[in-house]
Amino acid sequence: MGSEINGQFDSHKTLQALVWYAAVTLLCRAHVDIETKMNQKAEVGSNATLRCVLRKPHDIIQVTWQKKTSSSPENVATYQKNSSKVQNPYRGRLDITGTSLDDTAITFWGVRIQDTGCYKCLFNTFPAGSLGKDTCLTVYEPLRISVSYSLSEGHLMANCSASGWPRPTITWLGLENQSKKTEEEVSDLNGTVLVTSHLYINNSESLVGQNLTCSASSMDEDKISSVKVEGKWSHSVPVAVSVVCVVILLVVILIVVCWRRHKKKQSEMARGAPPASNWL
């Protein structure tokens, strides 16, 4: 009796293992049969196409595109031989551009940051069932960076601004240990993030003539920007030079006038004429 029970148990385990093996084999074959790009990148506002090709012949009934979410897949578009449908909120900015049942594609017109994510193409076939594969889209905004500063009563405030998506990360080079740092960010309507880092430095005299440098990174992009610190003396030098030039010019004019007056007096005395009462 016990041997019969053990035999039944072993048979059940063997059957279960075969079912699992068949399911895994079918899933692997489905992934091998479907060709697609695993990861694609697109700049905000550009067009992006996701494509799947089912290489082996199947009796395809319907093709469905879904976006993977944390809760449940979200239908994007479906089509059969004689009909197609694009779901909201994609209607009007997404089209099914590959309408062959074994070569399917969807195109985003003017992608948004919210379109970032992984999508699944599903081929509903008979009798094999549903065959699918994932393709992921990353939407980005190019990185932009700028740096500036202001001086007030010996204190310096440096500002480094970086915009883009994914959210930029700002780093000050060589100044982190001698200053107080604050940071703020603002999101644009299209999802772009503007990050601004402020540095407050009390002893700004030591930085005169040096560069304030910050770097920003977003996704695979890195940029560096810098500005040279100029002290108040650099603005007063041109003014001082101008004043000196004006004084020298006035002295030269005065010397010339006096010299001409002296020469005129000598000429009049030589002719015996009384000296003129006026200058020139």
From TrEMBL:
GO MF annotation terms: cell-cell adhesion mediator activity
Location of this chain's protein in the cell: Membrane
TM ranges: 237-259
Signal peptide region: none
Span of domain Ig-like: 45-138, 142-225
BP terms from Gene Ontology: cellular response to lipopolysaccharide; cellular response to type II interferon; heterotypic cell-cell adhesion; negative regulation of canonical NF-kappaB signal transduction; negative regulation of matrix metallopeptidase secretion; negative regulation of neuroinflammatory response; positive regulation of macrophage activation; positive regulation of transcription by RNA polymerase II
UniProt keywords, alphabetically: Disulfide bond, Glycoprotein, Immunoglobulin domain, Membrane, Signal, Transmembrane, Transmembrane helix
GO cellular component: axon; cell surface; membrane; neuronal cell body
UniProt keyword annotation of Signal present: yes
Membrane topology: Single-pass type I membrane protein
Stated name of the protein: CD200 molecule
Source organism: Crocodylus porosus
This protein's encoding gene: CD200
